[in-house]
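Appendix B. Extra example for self-study. Work through it before the problem class; the solution is given directly after the inputs so you can check yourself.
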Amino acid sequence: MKIIKTIEELKQIRKNLKKGIGFVPTMGALHDGHISLIKKARKQNDIVIVSIFVNPTQFLEGEDLDAYPRKDEADKKICEMCEVDYLFMPEVHTMYDKEEVLIKAPNTSYILEGYTRPGHFDGVLQVVLKLFNLVRPTNAYFGKKDAQQLVLIQQMVRNLFLPINIVPCEIVRESDGLALSSRNVYLDKEQRQKALLISKSIYKAKDLISKNELNFEKIKTTMYEVMKELDIEYISLVNRNFEKISKIELENSIILVVVRFGDTRLLDNIWI
Ligand code: AMP
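Solution. Structure tokens for the complete assembly:
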């Protein structure tokens, strides 16, 4: 595996690569969720490129940019074990000028996650577009865990006519159900235990839906009940374009959950 630090190096290497490039952009502190994306990319492509970049423009003032977990050495080993061909780990000054042409995400980026974190998705799209232009992948892999991010990236690819296939990947969970996230390390023992109620509510909702219960109000009430001791920020229903809807539409809906533990926000969801 070759580690790439500079744009020049990446451009030089990319020039000599043929088609069949799978790309997995991450912010590092890699866990089994990231690994599942990398493995899928490995299966489906000749060349696999992973990036690790904690992107400052997607963090709001006062968020955890400085505290965000960084595990470069462990991450390198994981990528090596997953047979990644190239690991791109740029510095912030490598990726950004003092002043920049900006990307403006659509209005659907200002609800839900974007309501709590206004401008977050502008930063996400900005860095993903930069990475896409550098790597020029055939396939790019994103987790359904970050549902709003995935849908906005799909829209960017559509709107800007980018010749890239976006591959959505299933949510990976701990054996007890908690969706894996780099931010789970912020939870203390008690919070970690209580957080299990989130996946419990997700399983409960899935169970109801499998029994043909499509009334979202009923499902939401049950989910609130399961998580009644938690600080729930929202339980919402959107379609696959991320517009809020009131009725579940099969094959076109996502139920989203966000729960707060102090400053830590945990996301989970179900694609129906
Ligand atoms: P991040 O490093 O948090 O920016 O995540 C990089 C990619 O991994 C994103 O596409 C995430 O959606 C995906 N990802 C993070 N957690 C999980 C998970 N538990 N299951 C599947 N994909 C995930």
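Self-check: The chain has a mean pLDDT of 97. If your reasoning did not lead you there, revisit section 3.
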